[in-house]
Amino acid sequence: MRIKVAPSILSADFSCLGAQVKKVQAAGADLLHVDVMDGHFVPNITIGPVVVKYLRKVTKLKLDVHLMIQQPAKFIQPFIDAGSDMITVHVEVISLKEIASISRMLKKMGIKFGVSLNPGTPFEKIKPALKFADFVLVMSVNPGFGGQSFIPSVLPKIRQIREVFKKDIAIDGGINAVTAKLAKLAGANILVAGSYIFGAKNIKQAIKALR
Ligand code: DX5
Ligand code: ZN
Predict the structure, then answer these.
(1) Can you list the domains of the chain with their CATH numbers?
(2) What pLDDT score does 204 carry?
């Protein structure tokens, strides 16, 4: 499968976000990963739909919106209206019934639907959701902050998912050139990386190294 690289803007300089996005786009990014946090599901607060709306104006990259929020169903519509191309919800906070209905809704609108699970959440929890998902986002750190270390015990879980799921598998958290290799070997094909990309002297080189 083609490897896609998704820079996470969580590690960008928000005082010049537009310029930072143009920089990763020019350096060969495939998607733009947008981390939405509510201070409930995770111990941090980040951004809402208004930022997605303005990102939409400055980039042609697909906007991959990762909802780390307690009530995702309630906020899907504003993120659709803002111009999201991909929306991910966490299986820890949503029922299978809601997953099925969000999946139908996004399909109609041509938006890709992702389901995500935390490092401590077992494969069994996401298994019934796989048939509704266009992609899976495996968290390799406990969500909330950029710059944490990769948790290698998620690798067997990626293999388990890959055995039954033929579409895209993304990995998110602590990704650098070394951990990207492990994730790819386990079956991931979308690499989300924040601090490794935005902290690099040469962003183009960093994206190439991940691939
Ligand atoms: C973590 C976020 C990640 C984060 C990754 O809660 O979901 O997308 O930005 O940052 P790094 O690559 O620095 O671990
Ligand atoms: Zn993320």
Answers:
(1) 4-210 (3.20.20.70)
(2) 98
The pLDDT assigned to 101 comes to 97
| Spatial separation of the C-alpha atoms in residues 12 and 199, rounded to whole Å | 8
Q: Which pLDDT score is estimated for 29?
A: 98
Six-digit token pair at 159?
Answer: 């293999």
Low-confidence ranges of the chain (pLDDT < 70): none
Kindly report the three-state secondary structure assignment for every residue of 53-72. Answer: HHHHHHCCCEEEEEEECCCH
Asked if 138 contacts 116 with a C-beta cutoff of 8 angstroms, the reply is yes
Whether the Cβ atoms of residue 197 and residue 207 lie closer than 8 Å to each other: yes
pLDDT value of position 149: 98
Residues 6+ apart with CB under 8 A from 151: 119, 140, 141, 142, 173, 174
Alpha carbon 181 to its chain centroid, in Å, reads 18
pLDDT of residue 71: 97
168 in active site: no
Name residue 198's beta-bridge partners: none
Question: Is 13 one of the annotated active-site residues of the chain?
Answer: no
Nearest atom in ligand 1 to 173's CA = 14
Taking ligand 2, which is a single-atom ion, which protein residues have CB atoms under 5 Å away? 35, 66, 172
Note whether 42 and 148 are within 8 A (CB).
Answer: no
